[in-house]
Structure formats: C-alpha cells, structure tokens
Design brief:
It is a single chain. The protein is of the alpha/beta class. It folds into 2 domains: about 1-210 and about 355-455, Rossmann fold (3-Layer(aba) Sandwich); about 215-315, no CATH class. It contains 15 helices and 16 strands. The chain has helices spanning about 1-15, 80-90, 140-160, 175-190, 215, 220-225, 230-240, 255-265, 290-295, 320-325, 325-330, 360-365, 385-395, 440, 445-455; strands spanning about 20-25, 35-45, 50-55, 70, 90-95, 105, 115-120, 130, 140, 170-175, 200-205, 350-355, 370-380, 400-410, 410-420, 425-430. Strand 2 and strand 3 (about 50-55) form a beta hairpin. The protein is globular and about 60 Å long. It comes from Olea europaea subsp. europaea. This is Serine carboxypeptidase-like 18. GO terms for molecular function: acyltransferase activity, transferring groups other than amino-acyl groups; serine-type carboxypeptidase activity.
C-alpha cells in the first residue's frame, strides 16, 4: 500500500502543475457554504499551454463511496458555471429579485451533488475562466478536446487520489454530449495501456445530445410536424421532394429547397430550445450554438419592444454574467488575474474545428463493455429533438428490456422511458415532459429523481 501511495505522489509531481483552493464563502451567500466547493486550474496540452478551470463539489451524502461525475457543458464554449448554477449544482441565483448588483445565492434542493461528486469544467481554452498561454492554445477541435479532457481527468485524479476508486461517469449535454463517448473511449484506451491512474469507468450520461447531425438535426422536420408546427401537406411534400434528407439538402433539388423554405417561414419565430417559451432577443447570452449554426433556421431572436415586458429565459443569465465578472467574486474563486478580459456564459467567438461529425460508432463499441448509460431528452427541444436521439439509439440494435411507458414523480407523469440491453450493457432512455434543451434547468425536480433512480439501478 505504501508503495502505491509513493507511486501516486511521484506521478502527481510529474504531471500536475495546477493549484486548487477550497472555497468556504461566496459573495451573495451569508455564512459558510453548506457544501464543499473546490476550484482550480489544471494544465493540459503541449507544455501545459492550456489552463483549464474547474469547479468541484463533493457529494453531500458520502463522498468516499458516491460516484464521481465529470460534467462538460455544451457550446463548444459554454462555461461549466452555467450547468452548475442553472441546472444540477448545489446553488443558484435569485433571478426573481436580481437588480443588477451581486445576485443573492440560493441553495438548490435538487442538486445532483446530493448523491454524487461532480467536476464542472470550463472547456475548451477561451471558455469561462480557462485560458491559454499561447495563441496556438486557443485553436481547438474535437480531437484536441478529447485529449485535453482526458489529460485533465488523469491529472485531477492524480491530485485527488481518494477518488480514484470511486465509480466514474462521464457526462454532458448538447455538444458536450458529443464528446462524452469520445473521452470515454480514450479512458478505456488509457486503462488498457496501463496508464495511471486506472479509472473505474462504469458508464456515461448524455442529455439532448449531438450524436450525428445527419440524424439529430435531420429529425427537426419530423419533430415540428409531430408538434403541429407545420401542416401535413408541407411535411408530405418535404418527405417526397427531399426523400427524407432535410439537413444539408441537395442544392440542385429546387422542389426540396422550396418546401424547406416554406417550413422555415412557419417555424422561424419559434424558440428553438423550447418551443413553448417566448421568442426573445438573445444578445450575448445564446444557448449552445453548434445546434444552431448547422441549420438554416434563423436563431437570432427578434428584439422585444419597450412596451412588451415579456419575460425571456435569457434574462436569467444576466445574474451569472454580473456575478462572475465581479472582482470580489473572482478573488473568492481564486481566478488568476489578467488571464481573461471578460467572463461570458457562452463564448461564441472560439476558434473550434468540428472535425468529428458522428460519434454513433463509438456508442456501438461500448455495447461490449458492459456500461450503464443514461440518455435523456427534454421533449420540447427543437434544437436536438428527442426523435433524433431515439432514432440513433434504435440503430444500436439493442433488445428492449422495458417497453415504452410513463415514469412518475409525485403521482404525475414526468416523462416517458424505455430501457434497452445487450448482455451486460444497459441503456436507459428518458424524456422529461415539458423540458427544453437543457432539461434540468426547466425541470430540476424531475431530473434529480431520474438521476437518483438511475444511479441506484432502480427503474425510473
């Protein structure tokens, strides 16, 4: 045992040049935080030129035995703080009473940290508080991000050896979910090569995932028809003229282009990430933009008139912008001074090459690994509709283990679920009724119940 600890310490000295800090108080909260928050940087890439910032919250239940999640937010370019405060973390902001000053911090009773240790990462360089020491460090891609995220996790575990044996799950939403199977495969390769630490990967979690745009984004047209946003006539015309190919259609197929233009006019003023919420001005607080830029649908929102004081969800994000850009907050979080000019929830100006189009084959490879997988979708999301997710899941040729049925919370239908298996591989699919693109943001209680039940291997 002593030799193992000495080896781990040696690896830590060789590979980890980061610094971590325990944060006991935060501006906006009175008193000591009732959970353990750690922040820090870990260097990755050539000569550690990229410094990735993270937030780590220990499980509020049993940190030594509860699973460890590495959660990556979408974008690419959306800060881990967004998922922490607006979705699954232990605190959020009082957006109702926010007046432009430091927002008050509220505790989240539905935090996933009630049952799990979670690392939220600002990925890639240029996101949140993460930065690079060279201009080359800001050039990002899918393949580079896979290596950087894997290196980050290795170094983090080496600097936190008490968590090496915990069950590990890689998790993410939207574009972040695209990277999940890629990094999971890198973890398996590293384990096979004998790289330290050996990671106890048990599975992964993805929400409203980008898996293959030819499936996910293509299913937007069937989805808007199913949701009564376009007529039967338009959908039938599109099916016939486009032959089922609506994403990147043949530019010489004028009939297809014409009907898609008519469909576009029907839905261009529908909120892409939640079809029932107001279509509002986005300014610099847009949602995950990869789903948006790959489509002809105009995602820039119409400015609201001064008389129209209709609430828009983007207004909620002003609280994180003002909080994270406050110098007192940055000092409390131990942010390195002078490394970023302005914190943004989502940085839309990243240099990022999407050089891996589809990750469907990676999901297929995990069937032999005996993983447990949770795939969830907010059913009112048009950006990454649940129909696309179901379509690629069914392409995995799994056996249905539990037929499509409703799942409940407090006696009400919370969504629908179907479970699949093949040997020791289990995949649970769940919709969250009424939720949008970032499901826990809309339905925190339901998503918390879903996560806890899945984690305990109970049926939803």
């Amino acid at each position: 045992m002593k030799r193992i600890w000495l080896y781990a310490l040696l690896l830590l000295l060789l590979f980890n040049n980061g610094a971590s800090h325990i944060v006991k108080t935060l501006p906006g909260y009175s008193g000591t935080l009732p959970f353990k928050l750690e922040t820090g940087y870990i260097g990755v890439g050539r000569n550690d030129e990229v410094q990735l910032f993270y937030y780590f919250i220990e499980s509020e239940n049993n940190p030594q035995n509860d699973p460890l999640l590495l959660w990556i937010t979408g974008g690419p370019g959306c800060s881990g703080l967004s998922s922490l405060v607006y979705e699954i973390g232990p605190f959020t902001f009082d957006v109702t009473n926010f007046d432009g000053s430091i927002p008050a911090i509220l505790l989240n009773p539905y935090s996933w940290t009630k049952v799990a240790n979670i690392i939220f990462i600002d990925w890639p360089a240029g996101t949140g508080f993460s930065y690079a020491n060279t201009s080359e460090g800001y050039s990002n891609s899918d393949t580079k991000s896979v290596k950087d995220n894997y290196t980050f996790l290795r170094k983090w575990l080496l600097s936190h050896p008490l968590f090496i044996k915990n069950r590990l799950y890689f998790a993410g939403e939207s574009y972040g979910a695209k990277l999940v199977p890629l990094v999971a495969m890198e973890i398996l390769r590293g384990n096979k090569q004998g790289l330290e630490p050996q990671m106890s990967l048990h599975g992964y979690i993805i929400g409203n995932a980008l898996t293959d745009p030819n499936i996910d984004i293509n299913e937007r047209i069937p989805y808007v028809h199913r949701m009564s946003l376009i007529s039967d006539e338009y959908f039938d015309l599109a099916k016939i003229s486009c032959k089922g190919k609506y994403y990147n259609p043949d530019q010489n197929n004028l009939q297809c282009l014409h009907v898609l233009q008519r469909i576009h006019k029907c839905i261009q003023h529908i909120n892409l990430v939640h079809i029932l919420e107001p279509f509002c001005e986005a300014d610099d607080l847009e949602w995950d933009h990869t789903f948006l830029q790959n489509d002809s649908i105009d995602h820039l929102l119409l400015p609201a008139s001064k008389q129209d004081k209709q609430w828009c969800r983007t207004q909620n994000y002003l609280s994180s912008r003002d909080w994270a850009n406050d110098l007192i907050v940055q000092e409390a979080l131990h942010i390195r001074k002078g490394m970023i000019t302005r914190w943004k929830r989502c940085n839309l100006s990243l240099s990022y090459e999407q050089n891996i189009e589809s990750v469907l084959e990676y999901h297929k490879r995990f069937i032999k690994k005996g993983f447990h997988v949770l795939v969830f979708s907010g059913d009112h999301d048009m950006a990454g509709p649940y129909m696309g997710t179901l379509k690629w899941i069914r392409m995995l040729n799994l056996t249905v283990d539990d037929d499509w049925r409703p799942w409940h919370i407090n006696g009400q239908v919370a969504g629908y679920t179907e479970k699949y298996k093949k040997n020791d591989f289990f995949l649970t699919f769940a919709t969250i009724k009424g939720a949008g693109h970032t499901a826990p943001e809309y339905k925190p209680q339901e998503c918390h119940a879903m996560f806890c039940r899945w984690l305990s291997t109970r049926p939803l």
